[in-house]
Design a protein that fits this description.
Radius of gyration: 20 Å
Largest sheet: 5 strands, mixed
Order of helices and strands: HEEHEEHHEEHEEEEHEHHEEHHH
Number of helices: 11
Helix content: 25-40%
Strand order of the largest sheet: 2-1-11-5-6
Shape: globular
Length: 284
């Protein structure tokens, strides 16, 4: 009887893992929701070895070629989009330029070859994180340029994919036209490393705090402390879940300074987040 119960648990766990769905959208409108058992028909899985920047080690995954999957779902439409916005189950929302997908091979992983679909995230204090239902990974062992990009391109717990035009999806994120060149560079850096978790004027991810409205973060943090916070949050608040700014980023100190310049410039562009935008941030 105990054996039968254990066997049933194993079967149920397997079925549950296999039954995960992924929603595809275009500019916020649902196109198709695909169950995991159908993904292999659209994009036959492969075994792929990559250097995982979150775990900071080589790992072998079983995964679907992502560009093939995009073509099966969207046809040529995906190549005409500006960006691909990913939604994760915890509110993390990274937006990755389509040009990156045109240049480098990405994969949608559904399990590790070892069977345990989780990693010890060394960027988050060795936290053990579940990767499912899906994890975006890259062929970085054959492309050093992708390896240099670090963890910003590797979202896990994916539940939705959306083709977007950045200026339409996030109209209140760009700095004022009169901003300094440092602030404008900082905007690009913020997009890459910060907006997946943080919102500015209600736009971005919802995993972390709003940084501009009603009070801009530079209005209550002194620049030197904000710099330390971005550089290594755990030196200020040990229990924080915020990771350090990417250690692999080129000109790292300058990029941190540029992000602070961008945030400071946004003091002059405060827009009250609407309930509609907040709902879209959580569920789009």
């Amino acid at each position: 009887m105990k054996f039968f119960a254990c066997a049933m648990v194993i079967v149920l766990v397997h079925v549950s893992a296999w039954a995960q769905s992924l929603t595809f959208k275009s500019h916020g409108k649902g196109i198709k929701t695909v169950e995991s058992q159908d993904l292999q028909k659209l994009s036959p899985p492969k075994k792929v070895e990559v250097y995982d920047p979150n775990a900071q080690e080589n790992i072998r995954f079983e995964a679907y070629p992502f560009q093939m999957l995009l073509t099966q779902i969207y046809g040529k439409e995906w190549r005409a989009a500006d960006e691909i916005l990913f939604t994760c189950s915890d509110g993390y929302q990274p937006s990755i330029p389509v040009e990156t997908f045109k240049a480098y091979e990405a994969y949608l992983s559904y399990r590790r070859e070892s069977g345990d679909f989780s990693i010890k995230n060394k960027l988050h204090g060795n936290e053990n994180v579940r990767l499912g239902p899906y994890y975006l990974i890259w062929d970085d062992l054959n492309h050093s340029e992708i390896k240099k990009e670090g963890e910003s391109l590797w979202p896990y717990q994916l539940t939705a994919v959306d083709l977007v035009n950045f200026s339409e999806r996030f109209p209140n994120l760009a700095p004022p036209q009169t901003s300094s060149s440092s602030a404008k560079r900082g905007f690009l850096t913020f997009r890459k490393y910060c907006m997946a978790c943080h919102t500015v004027n209600g736009e971005g991810g919802v995993r972390a705090v709003e940084l501009n409205y009603p009070v801009n973060v530079t209005e209550y943090y002194k620049p030197e402390w904000l710099k330390k916070w971005i550089d290594n949050p755990r030196e200020i608040r040990f229990s924080t879940t915020m990771p350090s700014f990417s250690r692999d980023a080129e000109n790292r100190a300058q990029q941190i300074a540029d992000v602070i310049a961008y945030l400071g410039a946004m003091k002059g562009k405060k827009v009250a987040p609407t309930a509609l935008r907040l709902r879209r941030s959580r569920h789009s």
